[in-house]
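Please go through the protein record below and see whether the fold suits the sequence. Record follows.
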Amino acid sequence: MRGLRTSETNRRDRLRNHAESLPGRTPLASGTGVTMAPGYLGGTAIDDIYGMAKDADGNLVVAGDSTSAELKATAGAVAHERGDVFVQKLKADGSAVLWTARLGGTQLESATAVTVDAKGDVYVTGWTASSDFPTSSNAFQRFGQGGDDAFVAKLSGKDGSLVYCTLLGGTKDENPQAISVDAAGIVAITGHTDSTNFPTQAAGSRGAFSGGPGAMIARLNATGSALVSSTVLTGNGWVKGFAIASLADGTFQLAGASTASDLPMVKSFQKSHQSAGVWHSGNAGRSWIPGADGMRGVQGESMVIDPSNPQMIYVATKRGVYKSSDGGFTWKAANSGLTSAATQYLAVDPKTPTTLYVATSTVGVFKSTDGGANWSAANSGLAKNAWQITLDPQNPKTLYATTSSSGIMKSTDGGDSWNNANTGIDEYFPYIIQISVDPQTPANLYAAGYLSVYRSRDAGLTWTPLNAGPSDEIYTSVHVDESNPSTIYASSYFSGSYRSTDGGASWQPMRSGLSPYLTVYEFRAGTNAPGVVYAATDYGIYKSLNYGQTWTQPAAELSNHYIYGLALNPLDKNIVYSCGQLAPDGVVVHFDKDGQSILQSTYLGGDGDDEIFGMAIGPDGSVHVTGFSESPDFPTTPGAPQTVIAGEIDAFVATFDNTLGTLPFSTLLGGDGADIGMSLAIEPGGTLAAAGWTGSLQFPVTGGLGNAPLGGSTDMFLARVSPTAPGFALTTLLGGSGLDSATAVVATDSGAWVGGYTTSRDLTGTLAGASAGYLGGASDALLVRVAGLSADAAFQQTSLTFDILLDGGPLTQEKTVTVTSAAGALPLVGKVPADAAWLKAVPNPQKAGELLIRVDATGLVAGEYKTAIEVSSPLAGVATTPVAVTLRVKNATPPVLTTVLHQAERTAQAIAPGLPILLQGDGFLFASGKLTPDPAAEVLPTTLGRVSVTINGTPAPLESVEGTLISAITPFGLTGDRATIVVTRDGLGSAPIDVALTPTAPGLFTTDGSGQGQARAENEDGTTNTVDNAAEHGHPIILHATGAGIMTPALADGQLVTDADHHPDAKVEVFIGGLPCDVYYSGAAPGRFAGYLDLNLKVPDEVTPGPAVPVVLRIGGKDSTQTVTIAVR
């Protein structure tokens, strides 16, 4: 795990902190037809793979680092005894190692990338700290220039012997990450460099290092003796290259990441940096929201809040001053009068908050007296390179400024004039970075700078060094705790942070939870939460609840961010603001042949951290990339397998067209933890294979291959996805119970190689050319061969025919296409011609290896429609097969409505509002069967199976639809004395039927549904009334009826009745055997839909018993016309 230089290792380790250690699990398993064969490489020390490539014969080359003495060079290969770089060549099936090479000097080094040319020769790049790193006699750079240098070596593909080796670097560190070679043997590398004198080929090809390291892009001639081109891409933030491709036309492409917002964008899909340099927390730092509106692509340096109106916030940025008047949600530039955009630090007058001061790095201090609307210089006697400005809170006209050349400057007239205030400051190193004023005793000042923390007790007239930490340190920040001014916090670059509880007389290191390797740019402690301290660091924000004794990082969102400034809301202790370096966005840049001009370029990202680590170029010049995103607004494309971020960090796979101007495909990939895409390859069939590592317990594993869930702290993953097909062709985990990380992937004709490193000791190795068991040490190189992804496939259907009749039948039909293969079920995709809008081909999400072919005749006229679908599998080796599709559509005829029946009486008579009716006819449905609503429905639908009924133009609730019968309920809103009824199917209406309309239409339901004979009734004990189970005279009975008309309280059409509170407006009477009954209850039937009536009544005492005693229902003076009876004893 040493292949990444320290800074790069720290960055990726921070991502790993999202992955928690978990219990062990069983070794890798394999799925039917597709196999995974893992194997350990290395020895008993540290061994890691960071790069892989294959030659024209399919042989595999791996490169990385190894400190294992057992991993020895083979005969004929380069064999530097102390070298940490290893390169191995294996047979195409992994059954044997063909040769091993060792390269390096007496100090640390690592290979980070490898490639192979058409002849099979091997090119490797990496970094070295060795002053004796062996180079060839004709090398472009034979000796190291300082720090860690890049190297480029060419090895013979036959035996691993050294063809040439050169260094490439400046006086600081170089970190190469990728290598490519063209047909002429010209090698291109990229990575990043801190060296301002990195060798470039032409004047003006190196930008200013204003925001961190720059991306180096260097090309060497075929002998490694000279540069063909070399440039360093820089901006106002850092720029890093992680992938490079040499194109056939001599141009080359870089992919990586950058926090710089000023990179030149040409023909871009995304023209501007999308992350924000300000954040807002409403819960005391436990979570953060980016203030992106108006601040995208703008890096924040310092913040202040108007103490009288905390909604008013100001931030100093590299683009001037920005102002928010709504608590940090939206921002606008406030730069009128500023002659430099390079603002560094802000101060606000606490007594007159519309007075502000800003320090700039090039034109000194500026002052505003109108809340930032206008600025004017306040520089008389002041050096132009101001770092920080602060003021006396009790006498705000007293100002202190720090400068990079003149030390501390003081003004007593609100910035009109300045004088030196350096007495006691080291005269050789008068560099003061920050000053903090004691808010209760403003004459007490503390200053952080080179060599010491200083204290003044006389308002800056004299200064005394304090022994906060080592005397040769650079102190970056100092802060007086506003709630307890005897407590002072200070931080240094190299030895960590300190605090004093006695006004600086003594100091104690702050180590509990606050690493000494962190750089703290600012401390903040307010008055409304005593003991609470925030620290802005190069690793996010830390917080203490006990005056700095212990520290935690309350939120993960900003853990990968450099935070420079903090501001605390004076009225609400939970509201905190921060500003800092932009989160990186992915970046892709296409250079011309000379490496001096940018042909196309684009950013890729959202408001969080987004970086590209892997890139592959398609045959058509399309650019495919992978990496990671923590942005909720990361750009994805419609229909992508995953469009929403699932955890804190997800991997992504995205495709640009060959101009970088459009993004045809983009998907996220991940689960609930951290997921990082590290490498990408293109399979012969065009499917993309992405590899990386995951810490997600819920990583989306598909295809029945590998392990799930996660077994160790991280696992390798392999994901296969086609930009032109829905879903993932395969996603699988590879690993054991330890830490497993994939750093490289290579596609083969029938599978893939995945390489990286592991600490898992429980994998059972089955790769013949590697060890079956863990070899020992801190890590082993891990190589996994995935095979069987391609297999002879046989399509079971090559033609499909659909017949659709427009006479009320369903207008959609579905059939399937399947394929059989030795690998089992294969994922299928179908490409439908653009002019066949009636046809769809969709993978069955419920069954692998099945493609659903759907036709929809909606809007089509009668006729025959023919086309063909191109059916294929994302798996390599499955040939595209045309499947012929024929759709035969026959003419439609409208439905025929013949009769309207009262549903209870089953007679053709007048209808009433809220009456269940039956419509008889033909052509309501083409297919057999019955359509009914969802059983859980609480309101009846007005359309079933594309069938609807209107009565006087109002849709009627539908209970069921059959081919010749519809059960409906008339709307309650019907008025007048006539009603027109129309049945509509698929837009075709029946001839209308006109019926009489009356306020009520009473009817009783019968047991056989005929409308005549035995009433549907329940006796007093709840049993059904029958001839053999008669009701007793003088006792209650329940009848079921309809036709009561309007109810109070009113019921909506088709409403499910849930209570017994709705009663007819019309009078309800019941007669049994000609005698009137006592009606205890008459109302809407609970549990039924509106329109049905329950009647609870008493059988008259004087009624003559019998098996068929007649019953008559009268509602609103109108009697039921049917012959209905009950049994009475």
Remarks:
- Helices lie at 6-16.
- Residues 896-996 form a domain with the Immunoglobulin-like fold (CATH 2.60.40.10).
